Amino acid sequence: LDEEAIALARKNFKNKFPEKATEIEGWDNITFLNKAKITIKGKITRTVIILLGKEESEHFINPAEAKVRWLLKDAQGNDKDYAIFGCPLILAVDKVYAKIRNLKYRYIKEGTLFPDEVNQYEPYSIREALNNCIAHQDYSKHGRINVVEMDDQLIFTNLGSFIPGSVEKVVKEDSPEEHYRNRFLAAAMFNLKMVDTAGGGIRKIFNYQRERFFPMPDYDLAGGKVKVTISGKILDMEYARLLARNRELTLEEIIMLDKVQKKQALTEFEEKHLKSKKLIEGRKPNYYIGLKVVEKTGQKAAYSKNKAFDKSYYLDLIEKAIKEHSSLERRDVDELLWNKLPDWMDEKQKKNKIGNLLSELRMKEKIENTGSFSKPKWSLKK
To answer: Less packed terminus of the chain by CB within 10 Å, N or C?
Structure first.
């Protein structure tokens, strides 16, 4: 075992259990490791190798790996730098943290000309995310933990499924998990003040993002691994700042609205909940922030661009334009309506919408095609 790692473990254990500080001073290393539940009756465990073992001791857990790879990428996704840290992982966490460029992020708060300044990432969030990877890594898969640093986000990945099944469940329940992949390891890390098995660690990360008005963390649970992305910048200045300060909204509702801003799919429950509180409008899957939130976040222009006009407005506009110009070709009608259709529609959807409007006017015998099928020319029906 690594002496420096044991010394840090002792220090953390004292901080975690201050009532035992005097007693701990009289313990030798074997007693301490047993009391901290890192070894069993003085016998070496896989947990103690992972957390406190010397780098050359890793072969004792072979074929498992206890390594963290830090990778720095530029804005184009090209590798700029990397480092690999092995046992003892209790020291590796600080080494990875020291590698991350936690730059200052500046933005102007309303009511002042002076910029507010915060770190891109809350230190707790970095350590909690990385320690969670260590605690929940599936070591039987013989892989490494990865920390990818980009200009405006950090990505943490560990192998193995997400035991709780749903991140929303963890955030909502805010309580200790009933099942752990590595129960002995997780308990030891709790005793060494590395993780919070009392529950609430993930929720704290979400709340720290909320306090910064940054996007909520993204969890990708596909492919037999857990991928956590923590953003280090504001996506929408007015929306993020004012929405996060709206005391009427719960963290769970902000997480749901965060999905809407990122154009991510909502569950049936989330759709019903947000609609019932008039927080979103539009049709599935093209929801947008509702008027109730917009009025509080200064997104009135964006709201109007997303909300379509009544159909009668478009029909009347086409009729008036044809009357004014005697006739219109399809490209003229497209040009007339294109920027008046909601922003969430793509090119194909806009084409179909305009075609349906022309068909409706034709079926109502308001207009007729005086051109050909391939090159229609629309005139008012006499």
So the answer is: C
Residue pair 325/300 in contact (Cβ under 8 Å)? The answer is: no
Q: Residue 85 pairs with which residues in a beta bridge? A: 68
370-379 pLDDT tens trace: 888 888 999 9
Whether residue 278 lies inside any domain: the answer is no
Under a CB-based contact definition with an 8 Å cutoff, are residues 251 and 171 in contact?
yes
- The closest of 134, 42, 55 to 88, measured between CA atoms, is 55
In a domain, 299, yes or no: no
Omega prior to 215 cis, within 30 of 0: no
Instruction: Specify whether 170 is located in the same domain as 23.
Output: no
Residues 119 and 229 in one domain: yes
Instruction: Give the pair of three-digit tokens for residue 80.
Output: 């700029």
Tokens 């993204």 correspond to what residue? 218
Report which of 117, 119, 92 is spatially closest to residue 230, judged by C-alpha positions.
119
Domain that holds residue 329: 311-380
In a domain, residue 205? The reply is yes
Same domain, 43 and 92: no
Question: Does residue 271 lie within any of the structural domains?
Answer: no
| Torsion-angle region of 307 (φ positive above 0: left; ψ -120 to 50: alpha; else: beta) | beta
| Same-domain pairing of 186 and 205 | yes
H-helix segments, 277-325: 291-297, 300-306, 311-325
Task: Give the integer Cα–Cα distance in Å for 121 and 99.
Answer: 13
One domain for residues 97 and 216: yes
Q: What is the CATH classification number for the domain harbouring 178? A: 3.30.565.60
Over residues 19-47, the pLDDT tens digits come to 999 999 999 999 999 999 999 999 999 99
24's CB contacts (< 8 A; 6+ apart) are 10, 13, 14, 17, 32
